Inverse folding.
């Protein structure tokens, strides 16, 4: 799918600009950020509410945002040093440019056929020792199963089961893959509940080593 179609679908999802859990999501990213990480790429940054939180927690980082919506990029706060418009399947950056690549509730907005290309591009722009971190809705969430709900929406084009996404990260060349609970349930019990079923979304990350 070309970038104009992705932009059209994502701009229809107005909740991306108002999601009340964005701040919690980026606070969780900050807790799992590798030490001495400076140059951060926030893919699917939207209007930058999450990055603003990240910059407050980690004031020394150099934050770059990439999005397919120029309208949303125009709203990024000053905490972002770089504002980049581009196609995530062909990131407009040289190899080994960033210490961390973030994707908060983003990968589900990518068509299944493009997912591996996106992960490989994230690995390419990471320096050796860097980390790729993402959150995504949990298709195995018990509440979804009980209510008969689905991950798919007008702009959610793919769904990602934790074990499958772990393999995809490995195939992209990442290692030491870790999975933690995220979303509303994490507000009550933290991110280390023994099973992922109660969590509406989850954090997964891996290192380029």
């Amino acid at each position: 799918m070309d970038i104009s179609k992705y932009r059209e679908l994502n701009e229809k999802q107005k909740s991306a600009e108002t999601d009340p859990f964005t701040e919690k999501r980026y606070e969780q990213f900050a807790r799992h950020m590798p030490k001495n990480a400076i140059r951060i790429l926030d893919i699917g940054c939207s209007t930058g509410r999450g990055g603003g939180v990240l910059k407050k927690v980690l004031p020394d980082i150099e934050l770059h945002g990439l999005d397919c919506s120029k309208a949303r990029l125009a709203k990024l706060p000053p905490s972002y040093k770089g504002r980049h418009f581009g196609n995530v399947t062909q990131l407009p950056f040289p190899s080994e440019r960033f210490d961390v690549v973030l994707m908060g509730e983003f990968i589900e907005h990518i068509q299944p056929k493009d997912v591996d290309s996106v992960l490989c591009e994230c690995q390419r722009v990471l320096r050796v020792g860097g980390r790729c971190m993402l959150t995504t809705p949990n298709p195995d969430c018990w509440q979804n199963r009980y209510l008969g709900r689905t991950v798919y929406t007008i702009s959610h084009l793919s769904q990602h089961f934790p074990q499958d996404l772990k393999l995809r990260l490995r195939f992209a060349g990442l290692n030491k893959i870790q999975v933690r609970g995220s979303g509303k349930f994490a507000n009550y019990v933290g991110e280390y509940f023994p099973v992922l079923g109660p969590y509406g979304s989850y954090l997964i990350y891996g290192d380029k080593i």
About this structure: Strands lie at 39-43, 62-67, 80-85, 98-104, 126-137, 175-182, 201-207. The chain has a mean pLDDT of 93. The longest helix spans residues 112-125. The helical segments are 3-11, 22-31, 49-57, 70-73, 112-125, 142-147, 162-171, 184-189.
